[in-house]
Amino acid sequence: MTENMGRPDVVAEARDWIGTPYLHQASLKGVGSDCLGLLRGVWRALLGTEPEAMPPYTVDWSEARRDEVMLEAARRWLLPGGPDFKAGDVVVFRMLQGFVAKHLGIVGEGGAAPRFIHAYTGHGVVENALTAPWVRRIAGHFVFPKGD
């Protein structure tokens, strides 16, 4: 575990994953990753062993039972985010209103023109603008433990 880990370290590690192809349930930099795999990989690089084992999951995971699996895990292992987006924050998205949250990303830049790093089908790990359509879908905003 890195005691001095801070927001710049989170962003640098997440950006190091950019270009990794999308692969459902994967978490291997440069080989394949989904959005959760990106977060898991950043966690392992900066904090060590993942705090809980990840069970297999389907693309439509949690939808039938409406379980907020991703959001609840974020609440267990991450700290609440502040009122503004800062580099290194984790954002969890509810892609459709009334559905469970099942996408996430790591803020690459805060401020007036925020950006976030995430992985999604057909694109792999990329960094995009955190525009109003994305912001409207945010279901949770968190900070890595040990972040400054």
Question: What does this protein look like?
Answer:
This protein is α+β, with helices and mostly antiparallel strands and 148 residues long. It is built from 4 helices and 8 strands, in the order H-E-E-H-H-E-E-E-E-E-H-E. The strands form 2 sheets. Strands 3-8-4-5-6-7 form a 6-stranded antiparallel sheet. Strands 1-2 form a two-stranded antiparallel ribbon. A hairpin with a 3-residue loop joins strand 1 and strand 2 (32-33). Helix 1 (7-16) crosses helix 2. It starts with 6 loop residues before the first helix and ends in a 5-residue tail after the last strand.
Indicate the topology.
Elements: H1 7-16, E1 27-28, E2 32-33, H2 35-47, H3 69-77, E3 79-80, E4 90-93, E5 103-109, E6 115-120, E7 124-129, H4 132-135, E8 138-143
Antiparallel strand pairs: 1-2, 3-8, 4-5, 4-8, 5-6, 6-7
Helix pairs in contact: 1-2
Brief write-up:
Helix content is 24%, strand content 24%. It contains 4 helices and 8 strands; from the N terminus they run H-E-E-H-H-E-E-E-E-E-H-E.
Strand order of the largest sheet: 3-8-4-5-6-7
Radius of gyration: 14 Å
SSE ordering: HEEHHEEEEEHE
What structural class do the secondary elements suggest? Answer: alpha+beta
> Regions with pLDDT < 50 over 5+ consecutive residues?
none
| Overall pLDDT score | 89
Strand content: 15-25%
Distance between the ends: 15 Å
What's the number of extended β-strand segments?
8
**Overall geometric form:** globular
Sheet with most strands: 6 strands, antiparallel
The level of helicity is 10-25%
How many distinct helices? 4
